Amino acid sequence: MAALPEKARVVIIGQGGIVGASVAHHLVEAGWDDIVGLEKSAIPTDIGSTSHASDFCYMTSHDKLTVFTSTYSREFYKSRGNFIEIGGMEVARKGDDAQVQELLRKVASGKAFGTNAHMITAAEAKERFPLLEEDTIECAMWDPDAGLVTPRSQSVAGDLVDEAVAAGKLTVFPYTSAEEIIVENGRAVGVKTAKGTIMADYVVLCAGIWGSLVSETAKVKLPLMPVEHPLLFFGPWDALEGTGKDIVYPLFRDQGNSAYVRDTGDPTTPEGGLLEWGYYEPFEPRIVEASAISEPEDARMSPSMNDLTLDQVIEAFERSVELTPVLADLPWEERRSFNGLLSVTTDGGSIIGEAPDVRGLWLCEAVWVKDGPGAGKLLADWMTKGRTEMDPHGVDPLAITPCS
User: pTM for this one?
Assistant: First the structure.
């Protein structure tokens, strides 16, 4: 491996995830070169959130910027042959009038911001998603443009990095953690690592669940915390054998229960023959201190994958069985199930833009796979032109109150 250079135009911290890879790609596309990427693990990452992401992409949101980054990302993935446009639905259970109203609001926002989302009946939902117990729901929202990144966002990240390296614009250093962002006179001027110090005109932070730890070395506090996301697998399930597909049924979300279900396709495909059930704990989220994340050599599975017990999610799981009874008929794949860590902010949005009080330090944090390429485009435009196609106020760190 080449020695760490003494100087670069840009240093990206967190090069191995979909966000860091997308930033590098779009900077190169905008004419930048002399970019150095640092990554704590392998490239693409084998320990970050990208390595175990469910890779869902829905287009709906209540804010225009997120619809833009999601739609841009979908088209980006599609243009590379990395997207299965299978569609997705969100359901409202019978008697849950609040969720019905929320779906109607999502459709209204979607129409305002350019999505194709619309309401469908319970019968239409059952027709699209045969695993559904039709008489348990009132109605559903249908997003025909939703889909799944394939083969995985982890693979896409690796391809984007390889392309930037092959173009001679990016040099990467896996297994090279950023220990400190060097700040002089209120400006980021370099990064210290165990392998040496590299000075830079710009530093871009895309470190995900480790983001707040790295930012604090520059005395920049981010309203960012890792949180556990229970992800369970059930099977073996051979109902889709012979389809040859990575996913057959649409994405299915039961937001009133904070849960979702999807199939993993034909048993002969790389991850097939299972049902995946995910859950986001809405009332007592399991927040993890970034400083408590295990090192790779100490983690049983991965630093971003904590152990899970069925007791932790049993109440929500039993509610999901009401809508999709097949879950109760399949064995739980305990060894494959885990609490996946992902980074979230106090308002559930992303942090994209130049850091408060430290010029030249650019942030691209708390970004989902569905928004990764769009966030990379936004940041690259901002750094290159000083402006973005869409108003970035909602994600601009200068407009976000830092945690105390």
Answer: 0.96
